[in-house]
Amino acid sequence: METATQLAVFLANRPGALARVCDALAKAEININALATSDTVDHTVVRMLVSDPTKALMLLGEAGVLALETEVLMVETANQPGVLAKIAERLAEAGVNIEYVYLAGGRDVENGLIVLRPSDIEKAERALRNL
Question: Which domain holds residue 119?
Answer without folding.
Answer: 72-128
